[in-house]
Amino acid sequence: MNATKQLIADTFERYVNTHGYVGTTLDDIAHELKISKKTIYVHFDGKRDIYAYVVGRQAQREKMRLAASVATLPDYAARVEALMRSVLEMGRAHIAQTSEGEWLSEYEVAADVFREATGSLLRELVQAGMDAGEFRAGDASLVEKMVSAMMVEYLVLVNADRSYDRDAELVERIGKFVG
Predict the structure, then answer these.
(1) What is the pLDDT of residues 137-151, one digit of tens each?
(2) Which terminus of the chain has a smaller tally of CB atoms within 10 A, N or C?
(3) Strand (E) or helix (H) holding 128
(4) What residues contact residue 18 under an 8 Å CB cut-off, 6+ apart?
(5) Distance set, CA 52 to CA 11, 44, 45, 131, 149 (Å)
(6) CA-CA-CA-CA dihedral for 19, 26, 4, 43, to nearest 10
(7) Nearest-angstrom CA–CA distance, 26 and 7
């Protein structure tokens, strides 16, 4: 990994944590690092690309943490349920930390990256459950895409109305769908 690229990403992440995605500019990053914006563009295509990279790093760390946290559960149904509950908790926590407009700006970039990381873990769990005979046979990739879509759309509803809480029902229905 290029040290300059890593430094740009780290600085960008720190600025986003302090000022939000919308409030962070490439000028801020260039000024902080005492580099030109051209140097930033050598490593990234722009603000959106840096944010996708930063979220990708976070998502990979979360995937490893989630995989470890569900690994000891007794069966794949319990693992999938725990994963869905954790994803909802993380989504709600992020929504609580950001304004509705900020969340929507971040969502556009972050949803795909985060869906890829947690979705791959979900796909692995579903496939293992199918292989073990716990879930009916099928296409684990399709299940992953459909469940991910449900989760993301549900979090859009939560962002629009933060008091909306049908988490338990959603997790139960996903469990029935997956099983």
Answers:
(1) 999 999 999 998 899
(2) N
(3) helix 100-131
(4) none
(5) 14, 10, 11, 33, 19
(6) 130
(7) 13
